[in-house]
Design a protein that fits this description.
Layout: H1 4-17, H2 36-40, H3 63-69, H4 76-82, H5 87-100, E1 105-107, H6 108-116, H7 125-135, E2 142-144, H8 145-157, H9 160-171, E3 178-180, H10 181-195, H11 207-219, E4 226-228, H12 229-237, H13 240-246
Antiparallel strand pairs: 1-2, 3-4
Helix pairs in contact: 6-7, 7-9, 7-10, 9-12, 10-11
């Protein structure tokens, strides 16, 4: 006999991916048209444990087994409160996430693997590592649907301050509250490695260092060798080009 918490977990998950009608209990028909949300989720591959067989809907025999082997997201209402997505948008996002990641979580190796397909001309592994760490808000080596939805909400729907704080966290590699020249150098090298050497116009070998120098000339107001969140926010909010770039994804979803 299943516990009440198992029943509630299953209900939350079914409601989240719209696999049933909460009023009638009947299955819903799946939409035929792929959405931009589902295509975006191609960036997030499924995490498969090497010690256990892959899990599909056809080989799950009962709800109890499902609750023990698959990660289940928290309730839909909670995610609506934590993000700026509607209930329907979260259902679409989760359905796509679950299709790509039946186990419900993504690890770094598979994240790097799928990300590399988008930049075949270069080496995206280091940038993907930095990006994964920004999504991995619990620092447990896995990105859950909650991690993904909350970060995506900030990137796409957050206030300008929220977006800049998220970007700062990406650049602050050791999460100590400031960006060092070494950290920004690592970021710039990872971006240039990802773009490859066959771009047009071709990039000079000195380009990463030049970008780092420019970054610190603009951002490091007191010339102490590090950029704080206050310096970062103040400079970005006064730069029209940066502000414009922050709005590029406003209407993606």
């Amino acid at each position: 006999m299943k516990s009440r918490s198992q029943d509630q977990s299953l209900s939350d998950s079914r409601e989240l991916d719209r696999s049933f009608d909460p009023l009638t209990g009947n299955p819903l028909t799946k939409p035929n048209k792929k959405t931009i949300k589902q295509r975006f989720l191609k960036l997030l591959p499924c995490y498969h444990s090497s010690s256990s067989p892959s899990i599909t809907q056809s080989n799950i025999t009962d709800e109890g087994e499902l609750s023990t082997v698959c990660y289940r997201p928290e309730g839909l209402d909670s995610l609506v409160q934590q993000t700026k997505f509607s209930k329907k948008e979260l259902q679409v996002l989760y359905r796509g996430f679950k299709n790509e990641c039946p186990s419900g979580v993504v690890n770094e190796d598979t994240f790097k693997s799928i990300y590399s397909h988008f930049f075949p001309q270069g080496d995206s592994s280091m940038y993907a590592h930095f990006l994964f760490e920004a999504f991995d808000t619990h620092n447990n080596g896995l990105v859950s649907f909650e991690d993904f939805a909350i970060s995506l909400s900030i990137i796409l729907r957050g206030s300008m301050t929220d977006k800049l704080n998220w970007a700062f966290n990406l650049y602050d590699l050791n999460k100590d509250g400031c960006i060092t020249r070494e950290e920004m150098t690592d970021i710039m090298h990872s971006i240039y490695n990802m773009m490859g050497k066959h771009t047009y116009p071709s990039m000079r070998d000195s380009a990463p260092k030049e970008h780092v120098d420019s970054f610190f000339q603009k951002m490091d107001k007191n010339k102490d060798g590090v950029v704080t969140i206050e310096e970062f926010l103040e400079t970005c909010q006064k730069d029209e080009n940066i502000m414009h770039s922050m709005h590029l994804f406003d209407n993606v979803i």
